[in-house]
Amino acid sequence: DIQMTQSPSSLSASVGDRVTITCRASQSISTYLNWYQQKPGKAPKLLIYAASSLQGGVPSRFSGSGSGTDFTLTISSLQPEDFATYYCQQSYSSPRTFGQGTKVEIK
Amino acid sequence: QVQLQESGPGLVKPSQTLSLTCTVSGGSISTGTYYWSWIRQPAGKGLEWIGRIYNSGSTNYNPSLKSRVTISVDTSKNQFSLNLSSVTAADTAVYYCAREAYYDTSGHVDYWGQGTRVTVSS
Questions:
Q1: Which end of chain B is more exposed for a tag (fewer CB within 10 A), N or C?
Q2: B54 touching A, CB under 8 A?
Q3: What's the angle, vertex CA B83, arms to CA B79 and CA B88, rounded to 5?
Q4: H helix count then E strand count, chain B
Q5: Closest residue of B to A9, CA-based?
Q6: Interface contact flag, A95 B60, Cβ < 8 Å
């Protein structure tokens, strides 16, 4: 199985901050990397697919980059509705695997 | 707009079989390059991929659960199902059904059910 490791596990930030979350794969996965946002009690929501493609309806302040083993999710200007947990997921091979999550909290 | 809805018992006894069904509306389960998946999340923890099925019936399972998991599809009802046998308390989680869209350059879950909480307890 491909292991996905996110960092940090949690972070505190203020509205308007630029936030960066990283995800590392245990082997090269090309750009088969997705990012999801999950709020308490809700199903995850797709933000970014194929490492850098923005899902329809997702605000442009979200962006993704990377290839191979190292990937980044960036929120350019954190908004109140962005406080949530973020997960990366590889879709290079089965079984699909997720990172452990990064919780973004209010500072 | 595609919608997915899980249904099934919220309480299952240890050693029994957990059975859930996902009903898909707003689109046919038989068409398109989609995998129909099950993903679970224990309370306060991360997401675990259980497995998926294509409309042809071909399946992929998480090796950690493979001996206990069966996913099936009923195209006539636009449903797919999860059976997880010999459950223990470790199987207590919110279970999500989901659609994975698969293309040459990506596979990503674009639609999720709302999730159903299943507790394993006597």
A1: N
A2: no
A3: 145
A4: 0, 11
A5: B46
A6: yes
